[in-house]
Amino acid sequence: MLGIFLGLAVLMILAYLGWSIIWVAPIAAGVVALTGGLDLLEAYKDTYMGGFVAFAKDWFPVFMLGAIFGKLMEDTGMARSVAVALTKLIGTQRAILGVLVSAAVLTYGGVSLFVVVFAVYPLALSLFREANISRKLIPATVALGAFTFTMTALPGSPQIQNLIPMEYFQTSAAAAPVMGIIAAIVMAGGGYFYLRWREKKLVAQGEVFTEPKEKKEIEQPDETPNFFLSLLPLLTVLLTLNLLNWDIVTALISGIVLIMLLNVTMFKKFIPSMNSGASGSVIAIINTSAAVGFGTVVREVPGFANLTEVLMGIKGNPLISEAIAVNVLAGATGSASGGMGIALEALGSKYYEIAMNSGISPEAFHRVASLSSGGLDALPHNGAVLTLFAITGMTHKDSYKDIFVVAVLIPVISVAFVILLNTIGIL
């Protein structure tokens, strides 16, 4: 097992230093292979690339179509339209809630996290300026709405972190709805009250809104599409996926087609937007596939049997060991989907077998895997966190402690809470 932990350490340290997981993962897999007695070249060409290609084959259409859907929502102004309407409805006196809800609705509707950051930040800046709230809280507010409960907890979410477990546990996107809703309440409620407490504390210290030293405001058109029409593509993806039980690929295509039909006068933007979305999805799928390939190599070394025995030997509810495995690997890779991909590629079949032979449903394993992917993933080296700081003009020193509370600490607490409820028989 020492080689497995050594490989994980290499992966985590190099990822933390900002090195791309695309080439770091094969190096870490090579460490595992060498210390595990595997032939290095064979482990890379067959085992590693086998896991890499298998994941890309299954999930590339979802990554690509999801990215295209989000980019079209952004470039047609529909994402901004939804965010503007919601913030106006909630009002500037509740600026944190307005930004939080706007980010949450877009994420739950299928818009990618990175697009949500670009769409919501200009509104957040305007609202925080009017409410005289320190900009230090903008990153954590956006992170709470986009990186937590809508990504992993709310049943039916079309985000990839909620879809990956379906393959391993034979479940749907709405798996374990009560468990997911309870976790979402803990995350959203706990995070919101924390941010309001921080707002009051900063005001008491004399810290209020200050203009960015460098103008980071993103140019937006004065006019936006109709709010209700802009909401339709989001609802289409959600309803076709969950009520009509369409495949996520078909659901996303229906949303994309609807965006183009509702914005036919902007047809000149369609090709550049689709090209940009498709190009961006390639990096995302390769990053996650690289992490999954690492997990495939881990599964092949003799020490994996010992690691499995240790994890499965954790006393109490087997959901605990799943939560630990997914959280640790998400933290190591700085990626929710990557960490969960490694864990489920290596241990998913074992957890499914436990579900079949115990009183715990596969749906519970699905939901805990999804929830756990959204915990330690948001450590300082996470790509979405770094993008958030780049867009908002803030730094780790300014805002990371607040992100840590709302996107790491509270989500971990929510997982522990729902597992406790499952253990005592409430869920």
TrEMBL record:
<feature type="transmembrane region" description="Helical">
    <location>
        <begin position="106"/>
        <end position="125"/>
    </location>
</feature>
<dbReference type="GO" id="GO:0005886">
    <property type="term" value="C:plasma membrane"/>
</dbReference>
<feature type="transmembrane region" description="Helical">
    <location>
        <begin position="174"/>
        <end position="195"/>
    </location>
</feature>
<feature type="transmembrane region" description="Helical">
    <location>
        <begin position="49"/>
        <end position="70"/>
    </location>
</feature>
<keyword id="KW-0472">Membrane</keyword>
<keyword id="KW-0812">Transmembrane</keyword>
<feature type="transmembrane region" description="Helical">
    <location>
        <begin position="225"/>
        <end position="242"/>
    </location>
</feature>
<dbReference type="InterPro" id="IPR003474">
    <property type="entry name" value="Glcn_transporter"/>
</dbReference>
<feature type="transmembrane region" description="Helical">
    <location>
        <begin position="403"/>
        <end position="426"/>
    </location>
</feature>
<keyword id="KW-1133">Transmembrane helix</keyword>
<feature type="transmembrane region" description="Helical">
    <location>
        <begin position="248"/>
        <end position="267"/>
    </location>
</feature>
<dbReference type="Pfam" id="PF02447">
    <property type="entry name" value="GntP_permease"/>
</dbReference>
<dbReference type="GO" id="GO:0015128">
    <property type="term" value="F:gluconate transmembrane transporter activity"/>
</dbReference>
<protein>
    <submittedName>
        <fullName>H+/gluconate symporter</fullName>
    </submittedName>
</protein>
